[in-house]
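Hey, can you fold this?
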Amino acid sequence: MLSFLYFFSIEGFCQSTLHGSVERIKVHGKGLEGNLAGDSPDRDVSIYLPPSYKAESKRRYPVVYFLHGFTDNDAQWYGVTKHWINLPLVVDKAFTDGQIQEMIIVTPNAYTRFRGSMYSNSVTTGNWEDFVAKELVTYMDQHYRTIPKASSRGLAGHSMGGYGSIRIGQKHPEIFSSLYLLSPCCMTPGNNRPVNPEAVAKMEAVKNLDDIDKADFMTQATFASAAAWSPNPAKPPFFIDLPVENGQPQPDIAAKWTANAPLATIDQYISNLKQLTGFAFDAGNKDQSIAASIKVLDQVLTNYQIAHTYEEYEGDHLNRIAERIEQKMLPFFSKNLSRR
């Protein structure tokens, strides 16, 4: 295990602002070994340790596992490289007034050769679902002062990370007790599939791995989704099956993608969702397709009489995420995660 420690100063914040620290370490994923994309199974993981962690050596903390979005990585979210958000600064600000209980926050780097893992199990990109739910949780409980039980673990994420949170969380109430989804993508069948001739042409123009880096966002998302949901070990160089081949839709592949859409599978996990102590999700109203999908999720949960919190707010996919984390997500986990 390799690690280094760095600290943040917060310019413009008052002197009374409490400061946590961040460690960035390597965690080996046994289930990520041998993935056909050739990504390293030794993954960077950024860990936010709350202000009191260093001083109170006998204190244990609840943990929130926070999953980043497609094309992002942990370094961007934790201020190692400049990005549209700096999560440690947001968390420091939230903890300053003492109204929110301190917690550890953990984010693995899920950036892959396809620019995102979709937090799914696949021979092409590796078993990311298992890495998050089992290997990473086990590592944290063994090496940090966590409270090692489900009632003290939360799972959250933005965009692809929101998708990963419900995908993993609905299967593992014995590991995570509370879920918060920020603008979760890919909830409905049909997400990321090329639906018009122009999109199909862009997809079919990709002939090698280097072409993926030059492709537009939605084409990249199509290949990442295929790597996660329709892997094919006999089909180099991508080791995937695409939902359209030689201009023809592939119904069997479309069915595989549908089987990975949370709103298509949620009925199988109702008993698990009823075990959660907290479930919340939100999206900006200008993030139209995602806002529409979580409105459906709200109705499904209401029909099943599963307690949850749902909000559509004024905003888009990125512009108020820091505010939502500070004012909504962290208070949610402070309320729902056990401190002992």
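Oh, and this one too while you're at it.
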Amino acid sequence: MSNLEEFAQTVGRDVKALSQKPEPRLTLTGITLGIVGGNHVTLPLPDNVGQEIRGTGSPEGRISAEIGATYIDTAKTNGALKWIKTTDDGNQGWKVIHGDTGWVLGWQEDRDNYTNRMYLRRINDVVHVKFEPKINTSTISPSANLILYLGSYGSDDNLSIDGFKPVDDVVQTIFKTSSDIYSETAGAENSEGAQGTGCVIIQYNYEYISKQYQKSGLNLKILTSELGVKENHVNPFSYLTEDEWPTTLPTIGG
């Protein structure tokens, strides 16, 4: 075989091999541009363009990102929809910026024909509170949302509401029902009829540790004076929380 024939065969084999290779294809994953089977490069982002990641469940301890990145939980786990990364790099430092737990039962006190109930709802960093009892008798006014004993009364119950704790103690006045206050105030010389007869307190326990007091457990205290009545009303109220978003919601039966 001549050199010319050998050269022709070699060229033919090279042409055949080239024709069998797949055409280069580009891929774009997020901001990473690559060639199938080859190298890749990370494209720079403009300073005013953020990164939004989508997934299921909390990103804390799972999703690594730079500061300012946002994350959408498509399952809205425990009511948390949107998170933002508050620290640079790593998978720690995610905070909820849009979340709503809906109303959850935080406390209840069972009695014969009714059950006192306190509901909590966290929207972002604010917790809303309302009392709404379950009443099984027509003798209780529908305008009452807290049923107590006549005269002075006191109760003290532990609260297990991680993710809903206030930054400090919260005090809310207990009133008679709106109809009672109206009838006792109308035509009166002063406003004594509209004064509260007790208070609801969400209060921390404190322990003296390392030469300072530190918050420990949390209690719900309900107190009334000798003027206390059976049917009462507590206005809905709200407070700020610095808790991390709850990993579980209160699950009190009833």
